[in-house]
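Continuing the batch. This is chain 6 of the set; chains 1 through 5 are on the previous pages. Same settings as before, nothing changed between runs. Recording input and output for traceability.
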Amino acid sequence: MDGVSEGKISLARGYPGERYYLVREDILPEAVLKTMQAKELLARGEVKTVHDAVERVGLSRSAFYKYKDGIFPLTKMERETIVTISMDLEHRSGVLSKVLSKIAELNGNVLTIHQSIPLQGMANVVLSVDTSLMGEQF
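Output for chain 6:
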């Protein structure tokens, strides 16, 4: 791409040292399953609040908050990928626009953009991009 010098791409994959397991639903503790059910009710808009969701599935709020950030349906985890792209761009009109157009062309969704003030004709740009719809071309 014109105006782009060496860049680096890193995947946002959680904290170093985290371990993940693929576990059958029938061996999960009831509180973990009910947490997932409550999250699904909230995601579908069937309930408006955590209080309503946990009440409907018969779970305490403390259990919900304990497990909510640690349980995801497998289909969701494999599709949701956010990458951070850091690059140095020439300070020329249209260079960043070309980068953003290419990401959009590949079905990427730009979540955040941070650009430094150009120094000596170059500006550092850091993008957070949701690549879940980008498919194999990324």
